[in-house]
Amino acid sequence: MTLIVIAVLCGLALLTLSSSRLGLGAETSSCPAGLGGLEIAFGDLFEEDQPTNPDVAALLEDPDFGASAEAVEDLRDGVVDPRLVDALLVITRKHQICVDAFKEGHYFIEGVEDGPVIPEGYGEAGGLPNTHYHGRAADIWYVDGEPVEGNGDDEGVLSVGQALAGIPPDARPDQIIGPPEWTERLDRSWREGWVLSEDQLRLHEDHIHIGYKEEGTNKNRR
Ligand SMILES: [Zn+2]
User: Fold this and answer.
1) Helix then strand then coil, % of the chain, to nearest 5
2) 39 vs 55, 76, 101, 134, 180, CA distance in Å?
3) 184: closest CA among 167, 169, 212, 204?
4) Is a pLDDT exceeding 50 seen at residue 27?
5) Ligand 1 midpoint to CA 10 (Å)
6) CA 203 to ligand 1 center in whole angstroms
7) Where in the chain are the domains?
8) How far apart are CA 220 and CA 83, in angstroms?
9) Interstrand relation of 175-177 and 97-101 (parallel, antiparallel or unpaired)
């Protein structure tokens, strides 16, 4: 009997050890366990699947960057705008972030498949170009292990906004949307890339959206 108990305990210990080695331990991760299915241990990616863009490789290897399996696939497939990759690398200099979606797995309205334009019914933005669909937007749901939801005026979450504001205007995302209290505390203008319309802030109570409105150009004003 004692032997059986010892054997079971050893088995559990081994299981725990192998789980943490696979990057499944929630406490050291930028994303909560289970987001988007299985979390990826970036170091385990096969050599031949490594992205050719060095910035994408740097982001995927960055221990402060976490992402859903679909978001990792988008990065490896090269569908994410390089400007967005650079902006995320600026944020991870100071913070752990978890990106839930670029293109794949993103939806505005549950059950409505994403297309080139925002679906009608998504606030007043219905009919406008969908930057996610074009690989020009990222949704950040967790900062330093804490959900954005309910923490919009948390110093860490605010600091992500300050890091964005510190990016030169011509490189900074020109479509930055976050929770109402986050937006109010940061007190940035539309000229600097912030979206301020109340219906959009209500729709972003649980995440920070950073995007580029157009390919290769930037709408920010100095
Ligand atoms: Zn978004």
Assistant:
1) 40, 10, 50
2) 21, 15, 14, 24, 30
3) 204
4) no
5) 45
6) 10
7) 50-211
8) 14
9) unpaired
H helix intervals, 142-197: 155-165, 180-186
CA–centroid distance, 117 to ligand 1, in Å, is 13
DSSP state string for 78-104: T-S-HHHHHHHHHHTTT--EEEEESST
Percent of the chain whose pLDDT exceeds 90: 69
Residue 214 alpha carbon to ligand 1 centre in Å: 15
For residues 173 and 219, what is the distance between their CA atoms, to the nearest angstrom?
9
H helices then E strands: how many in the chain? 7, 6
pLDDT tens digits for 52-102? 899 999 999 999 999 999 999 999 999 999 999 999 999 999 999 999 999
Residue that the structure tokens 């009919």 belong to: 127
Residue 9's identity, in one-letter code, is L
Q: Could you tell me the distance, in angstroms and rounded to a whole number, from the CA of residue 208 to the centre of ligand 1?
A: 7
Q: What is the dihedral sign for C-alpha 42, 205, 199, 122? A: positive
Alpha carbon of 45 to ligand 1 centroid (Å): 27
Q: How far is the CA of 51 from the centre of ligand 1 (A)?
A: 24
Summarize pLDDT for 146-177 with one digit per residue, the tens. Answer: 999 999 999 999 999 999 999 999 999 999 99
Distance of CA 132 from the midpoint of ligand 1 (Å): 6
**Ligand 1 center from residue 192 Cα (angstroms):** 18
Query: What is the CATH code for 50-211?
Result: 3.30.1380
CA of 37 to the centre of ligand 1 (A): 20
